[in-house]
Every structure is written in structure tokens, then in C-alpha cells.
Amino acid sequence: MKPQLYEYYTKHLENGTFVSWLAVDDIKVVGTSGMSFVEKPPYYSNPYGKIGLLSSMYTLKEYRRKGIAKKSLDRVVNEAKDYGCGAVQITASNMGVLICTDYGFKKNEKFMKYAF
């Protein structure tokens, strides 16, 4: 996976379709988040078709419940708005679901995936 991740991040950080943030305590990285920008054909609730896909959101255990995730989500949502996205989507862990639900994300029961 390392070569594929390196290629992805190099390409998409350079062309602006991936953004990432670090939460830092002094010189220690204590949290991360990243978002990819994708485009679909426009539709009624998203007339420009742009979507932010949130990924790689993590906070070290000893730094949880200190507002880091909320600040990360603030940055994610603001960046998505600035980019012109009509929505932000996330695939979250059980803990992530709670954080995102508290923030205002809604579950979409219509989402399906076919993996191969």
C-alpha cells in the first residue's frame, strides 16, 4: 500500500483535490484528518456535484474528549464549503459515528457498496 498511498497523496495534494490537517501539541502530532474532493454529475440537493470525502480522521486516545475532533470537523466543513461542495461524506468507526452525529452529520441508509 505504501507506493499507492505515496502516489495518491503526491498527486492529489499537488492538484488540490486532497487536503489534510494535523493537530499538534507542542511538537507532538496528536490528531489528523484529511479530505478528498470528488465531483459527480450535479443533482437537486448538490447543484455543483462537488463532495468532500472525509478520511483519515484520528485523535490519540489520551487527547480525546478535548475538542480536537470538533475543531477538525470545523476545518473540514469550512474547507468543503470554500471548495464549493454541497456535502461532506464520511465512513466512520463506531466512535466516529458518535462524534459526527453530534456534529450534525446524518446517516444515509441508501448508501450501498459493491466490493471486488
From TrEMBL:
PROSITE patterns named in the record = GNAT
Keyword check for Transferase, yes or no: yes
Q: Which domain of life is it from?
A: Bacteria
Record-level Gene Ontology MF annotations: acyltransferase activity, transferring groups other than amino-acyl groups
Which residue numbers delimit the N-acetyltransferase domain? Answer: 1-116
Entry-linked Pfam families: Acetyltransf_1 (PF00583)
Which keywords describe this protein according to UniProt? Transferase
CDD domains per UniProt: NAT_SF
Q: What's the protein here called? A: Acetyltransferase, gnat family
Please tell me the species this chain comes from. Clostridium botulinum (strain Kyoto / Type A2)
Which classification does the entry list for the species?
Answer: Bacteria, Bacillati, Bacillota, Clostridia, Eubacteriales
